[in-house]
Amino acid sequence: METSEQFSNKQKQISISEFFEKNKHFLGFDTLQRSIITAVKEAVDNSLDACEETRILPEIRVEINRLKGDRIELITQDNGPGIPRNDIENVFGKFLLGSRFHAIRQTRGQQGIGITGVVMYSQLTAGSKTQVISKIGSDSSAVYVELGIDTRKNRATKSGERREIWLDDLTGDPVLHGLRIRTVMRAKYQRGRQSVHQYLRMTSIVNPHASISLVVRDRNGEMIEEGNWARTTEKLPREVSEIKPHPHGIHLGSLQRLLREAEERKMTSFLRHNFSGVSMRAARDILAAAGIDEGRTPRRIRAEEAQEMVSAFQKVKLLAPPTDCLSPIEDLLIKKGLSKAIDSRFASTITRNPKVSNGNPFQIEVGLVFGGNLSAEGPIEVLRFANRVPLMYQQGGCLLTKALEAVDWKRYGLEHPGGRGIPKGPAAVLVHLASTNVQFTSEAKEAVADNEEVFEEIRLAMLEVGRGLKNHLKKNSQRKKAREKFELINIILPEISRKSSQLLSREEPDLAPVITKIMDAVFCEEELDWDDERKLAICSITVYNYTARARAYTILAKWPEEDGVRIDENALGGRKEAKGLWAWRLDTLNPGSSTTIFFTVSGLTKGEWSEVDVFYRGNGEVIGATKIDEKLLDELRKTEALAAAELELEQQTETMGHLSDRAEHNSPDPATEPTEQVQPTLFDNYEAEE
Amino acid sequence: METSEQFSNKQKQISISEFFEKNKHFLGFDTLQRSIITAVKEAVDNSLDACEETRILPEIRVEINRLKGDRIELITQDNGPGIPRNDIENVFGKFLLGSRFHAIRQTRGQQGIGITGVVMYSQLTAGSKTQVISKIGSDSSAVYVELGIDTRKNRATKSGERREIWLDDLTGDPVLHGLRIRTVMRAKYQRGRQSVHQYLRMTSIVNPHASISLVVRDRNGEMIEEGNWARTTEKLPREVSEIKPHPHGIHLGSLQRLLREAEERKMTSFLRHNFSGVSMRAARDILAAAGIDEGRTPRRIRAEEAQEMVSAFQKVKLLAPPTDCLSPIEDLLIKKGLSKAIDSRFASTITRNPKVSNGNPFQIEVGLVFGGNLSAEGPIEVLRFANRVPLMYQQGGCLLTKALEAVDWKRYGLEHPGGRGIPKGPAAVLVHLASTNVQFTSEAKEAVADNEEVFEEIRLAMLEVGRGLKNHLKKNSQRKKAREKFELINIILPEISRKSSQLLSREEPDLAPVITKIMDAVFCEEELDWDDERKLAICSITVYNYTARARAYTILAKWPEEDGVRIDENALGGRKEAKGLWAWRLDTLNPGSSTTIFFTVSGLTKGEWSEVDVFYRGNGEVIGATKIDEKLLDELRKTEALAAAELELEQQTETMGHLSDRAEHNSPDPATEPTEQVQPTLFDNYEAEE
Prior knowledge:
The structure is a homodimer. Chain A is of the alpha+beta class. The first copy, chain A, has four domains: about 15-230, 2-Layer Sandwich (Heat Shock Protein 90), CATH 3.30.565.10; about 245-315, Helicase, Ruva Protein, domain 3 (Orthogonal Bundle); about 330-470, 2-Layer Sandwich (Ribosomal Protein S5, domain 2), CATH 3.30.230.10; about 510-650, Immunoglobulin-like. Helices cover about 30% and strands about 25% of the residues of chain A. The first copy, chain A, contains 15 helices and 26 strands. In chain A, the strands form four sheets. An eight-stranded mixed beta sheet of chain A has the order 7-6-5-8-3-2-9-10. In chain A, strands 11, 12, 13, 14, 15 and 16 form a six-stranded mixed beta sheet that branches. In chain A, helix 3 runs antiparallel to helix 5 (about 115-125), helix 6 packs antiparallel against helix 11 and helix 12 (about 400-405) runs parallel beside helix 13. Chain A is globular and about 110 Å long. Strand 1 of chain A pairs antiparallel with strand 4 of chain B.
């Protein structure tokens, strides 16, 4: 029998490098196929982060060459800021060394694990050093160095360091700034849904400001795959600021550490300096609620008092944390990205307002495309992204998928057997979670861990795009029915009429009033085309009056109004009713007649606008259009006016500092807050469903 | 614009404690509901491991008390070996400090993370210290100490240490050896499928040698839930030995490190000492294939030569690694455990032979139960285990689930819409992966990462139990049909006969020959009952001859033969045909007659034997029994004789050391090895399916 002493004498400290070497599957190096994708991902994420932080439009090249056996050479190069000489070995050769670990803002990498994992995997499986060339703007030459890892000590081993002028492979010009990595590893290159190509393609969807290229060569040097994703916008993602933690997310243990290490002398300053969302008034309220004197020294606060503070954080009204730490992709770019990648008939996107979970701001964006070339067989395609990084593995275990599955898609027109799992049909759904702290289930960052608030936000976003889909399908089906009825009547009635006239030797009667009477409907048909030559979206809306009475309508259409986008040709004139909403008053429409509104919109690119929402004002129903909700329209106009006024005010007071007019909000336990209802939006006279 | 220098100056080493504090969801502390389960799991796993290593039959008590707010007090206590005073702070207060990290053998914990995570979570969320009482057998008193973690430095903070006689709470007696942990944390206690209760229940299924109890109390001290799982066997799991790595799983980088640190002077000794599965001949073959002199000094081997060695490892015939590093649960105990937990009609279990993946021995066990109280609605229940630890989260992302889903269950009698996902029906499947290196997707150890060889083994095991289910269902359905036919004929024929006899005023004819002619079948019905008073399994097998000719058969039945289990009453006598297979030669069976075999089996417990497989030898078909395959039976007998001879030989040569007669095997790339076919087994004249 082994005694407990013998047992414990073997206790030994394991270095973090040894830990990850043994558990390389935690980092995404579980199979040969996945390892190359993981390596590309870590390099590209770093490049995109570095470019974004230094406000450079990224140019990223990925080169993959198959070598003897199951070894692969990977080369990545960017035009980022480069890494200063003294930091290179730490970035590549040391786990858990990072600049962003404690910062609260949206970034792709955070933990100081990714690229070090690549160096480790390369050394472990191919016994290979990783070659790095780094050029920073202020140096005249680039640093060349080869790196490995001493896993027992978690530190880099360095060799062959030298300085040289770095000439670009393709252009031959000296490189101003950038980073090039070359490494060899055991891996298997494959095509298809889980491939480097797909990873980069998806990356380009959510990073439209990046230009990315891929070349893959076989052992004989022959190119076997390539990809070229040019940027579709010159606009860099919003610059994100670092924020302080919000009291709502603070654990007792963290508060105690902050108190212990505080240099402030008074509790009010302590609260104001260390947290976001705490005004002077809020600080006083918190201290009063916790029964702590404002003048107390933070370091002297006792455990029970800290516990009282944590309770007070949940009771006192606090400002929401600032959300300039987040960088959403935004509706239009999502639509653009999706339609670049997927050929579909209908697209609906939504960027929700930022929310807070455990003190971490986050924001959900969802896009849904339907029809077109998408396969109607099998489950819909799910594209998952976290902080602009595609997630390609562990779909089933990911919160983003679970929230999608929690929606009853049958209500929104997709097949959803048993209401479980991924719905079926010719659709694809994109989900993007932007957060200062994406909680993944593991270091490989492929699946988001459970979180009730994030789940609920995604679900609500899904309901919104789902409703768009439902309306689209409903409109289509109504129109199809009306058209079928119309065609039927137009064929059969004259037929009957002719036969019976012949039989009775009478003249054929005028059928128009009869047809109108049978149809007894007004219907509206819109068409949206893209003129590739003139770079114009061409829209026509036709209203048919198949009723027995004359009709009068105002027709309204949603269009993607923004800077640089405008309505060009528009013979009927009309007027702006609200931002993105144009209205035309039609002349009286007689029974059996129709009229057409025709207009063009310039300043868009293909795919940015794929569906016209048509509304009407007038009596009765118009099949294919939605009656406008005047009350909501009024509210919208007010909000707009308010926003404009606020903008003006903000510009005036900008020099006065960051005085926030945001309403203070009090957030009780979010689990108990009723969140079942979706706020109705202007263009949606949504009714309770069966 | 932030320059690259500014950016990189913020680089900072993060301690592993800080890393896990920020990423506590990696450790299973993502929601309040899950956190308490994770904490119980870590404590119980440690207790079971420590008891197993020191060969103690474990007695584990778990006590949960709800406190004010969302805080919970957790107390766990075991009768394990205890932890020596000087090691306590390292075990509880330091991440990545472990005794088993480098050892190759099957254990529950390995990484030195689990229980330290509990101490960290308790400190973070409740600001609470963890109280530990440890008593080792050789000390006269127990150590009392309170522990926290200094996360910046990854080390324990210790207070209030003292020595005292530890008296057991329940008995009041001094505790001889054991460990007691008390901690407070933010958590939410819940019941149901994902609960502490369910976790302990599942743990008891695969650890039948452990006695486990649970008490949960509300804030007012009232007991709201309890559980008591007594051990069902006194047999401790097989003692596992530590083995050396097998060359098949060695990466180039690891080999290079071993070479660098080698103290051997010759390459042959290096290979023999550092690896398992390498005989002297194999060592010579490897060196010859790699072009390396046997006498070379390991430390002088160059990188290219090491690469050649790695290639040679795959080419040269090597012994399989020893599998005494594994401890499977074994068929009988799985069946016992399953039938203790689930009331079902049919159970089929399989323990596959150990296999090797990347040099790591592993073994798959699967159990399937069907019918009884199991719900026919919805997907079947999947019980996942790795190294005797229940996996309760991330079911969708787990290799064990994926392998189950890869089987076409429709062929085996379960509903499986679209052949995707979890099949439906009144069944539950248990999967156990025993391995020296279970590769989880994260530190929380809830899902197994992808691995082709493990996947294939599970799939094959599923096919085997699936075939059992299919035969069971087929037999049931055949019998049901025959019985229906029989009943119908027995009702209708006499009816017709009577009517027509009356009509014709004739005497009724003897119908027996007619009925026999119409039925024209022999059928066999067995019944298995459990006599709870006498602790006997009671089995009867009845054969009916509904054909026109006299019949003669030998009937054979499978029974769970092993030490201590024997056939008691058995009026017909018969003889043993092979291990676990008894045969009775029946007297000639005349048309229209039947005969019954009746026997009892003692030495079993309820649920251990739930299904009798019946075979026959003779002409024609017997509905409800399977014709025995004489060729396979012969082979089985030979194997048995061989095994007996080997056992004798082994006992003779035991003193001569560990001379292995195992055949050397050469394992090519397993991915290319055809593994589609399942070996037919004796009791299975399995045919190609539609």
